[in-house]
Amino acid sequence: MKIVITGGHHTSALPVIKILQTDYSDVEIVWFGHKYSAAGDKNPTLEYREITALGIPFYHIHAGKFYKTYNLVRLAKIPFSLAQCFFLLIKIKPRLILSFGGYVSVPVVIAGYLLRIRSVIHEQTVVAGWANRVAAKFAGKILVSWERSKKYFPAH
Fold first, then answer.
1. DSSP letter string over 45-110?
2. Is residue 139 within 8 Å of residue 121, measured between CB atoms?
């Protein structure tokens, strides 16, 4: 079974990845994330280095932020990233998307929803971030680390 894991909080995903790799030999993990922190940066992110060190295929998503920006280039990346995720998900054919927040996860979860691929979101913090609140509208399940986080998501 293929699982796409995505999100800005890769350190929270690492223990889950370890369990999946150890206890479920039939699971194939693919990562969607950021290879570089900023445009023009030539240094790979810690996310990229740690995920690829585990032997997990890594796909760089060219996601754009919708909030806290008035940069037209960043805004233009939004439809591009949705299309990129849509086509990558068709190519990879995962059975599940596991999201750990961050704006890179939003187009992945929305594209998955459009393709009828179930998504599970994990919120690690007490105050849910913008990305998880948006992605929650398209997810099948939402997991929280803190009881107080539930108020940011639909009751169901």
1. PHHHHHHHHTT--EEE------SS---HHHHHHHHHHHHHHHHHHHHH--SEEEE--STTHHHHHH
2. yes
Fold classification of 2-152 is: Rossmann fold (3.40.50)
H or E stretch at 31: strand 28-33
pLDDT by residue (tens digit) across 91-114?
A: 999 999 999 988 889 999 999 999
| Single-letter residue type at 60 | H
For residue 135, what pLDDT is reported? Answer: 82
Count of CB atoms situated within 10 Å of the CB of 25: 8
Which tokens sit at 78?
A: 């939004």
List the end-to-end C-alpha distance of the chain, in Å, as a whole number.
27
Neighbours of 105 (CB within 10 A): 30
